[in-house]
Amino acid sequence: MTTDVIDAFKLKTGEAMETIFYSALLLVNAVMAAIAQALSNLLLEAANYNATDCVQPSSVGQYLRYLVTIIPGGCYLLVLIIIIWFYPITEETRKTTKTALDFLKSMEDDYTEVPLLHDESVQYIT
User: Fold this and answer.
1) What is the DSSP string of 67-88?
2) What would the mean pLDDT of 78-96 be, rounded to a whole number?
3) Measured between alpha carbons, how far is 67 from 43 in angstroms, rounded to an integer?
4) Where are the extended beta strands (E) located within 31-74?
5) What is the mean pLDDT of the chain?
6) Is the pLDDT of residue 123 over 60?
7) What is the rounded distance in angstroms from the CA atom of residue 42 to the CA atom of residue 100?
8) Distant-in-sequence, close-in-space partners of 40: CB < 8 Å, separation ≥ 6
9) Average pLDDT of span 52-81
10) What whole-number distance in Å separates Cα of residue 122 and Cα of residue 15?
11) What is the pLDDT of residue 31?
């Protein structure tokens, strides 16, 4: 899905910004992990979790089940619905984007044969 978004952005703007997209994805992932850890601590505190006790109240087990099943699944589903609602990429739009990008790439390959290193035997047009 990320590559489809990057391709659609490149087709729309003409700029390839893969590093920006992946950097933003990693940043959001890190922020969400920090928020998840903070919420985990708050919920376990609400369930009377005590790290020094060997036996925990039954509410701790119930809260842990919520923390690893319902809460992440619900958050993921909510974010996914929002993303799909505002940025739908269907199979048809994906194929159209791929065809257009392939065409642009073939046009670039035809007109941008530039030597990578400065060579005295190559005459450059100034």
Assistant:
1) IIIIHHHHHHHHHHHHHHHHS-
2) 84
3) 8
4) none
5) 81
6) no
7) 49
8) 67
9) 88
10) 29
11) 92
